[in-house]
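Extended Data, panel c. Modelled sequence:
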Amino acid sequence: MDKQEILNCLSSFPYDCKEYWLVTGAAMVLYGIKKQTADIDLGCTSELADKLEAEGYLLRKTKDGKRYFKYGNNIEIFEEWLCDTVKIIDKIPVVSIKGLIEIKQNLGREKDMKDIELIRSFIKYNNISL
């Protein structure tokens, strides 16, 4: 999914944008760090997780006991998955770059380490201070 596909997908997402935020690959796409991602991962408030559970969305639990949901074909939603703060990009709440690095470090997978390299290059190239 490219930036426009992500924006189009979230334009029909029926929940209040104060209750969710983009994380991982989709956040990187909105920042312009990379061109595409496979899907959309969202963090959400516990209140939105309660709504999703009440509405019957497929629910699983993370290792730390938080809920996560599959929403349609392209969106996964993770309860309270946030590091640092959220900023608004194109009217969409997105985890901060600092938070994005922290999330990727916590995941610790090889692809996340490669993403951290991309993020750091982006920061350096664009002279961004965290």
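The helical segments are 3-11, 24-31, 46-54, 97-107, 110-125. This feature is highlighted in the accompanying rendering.
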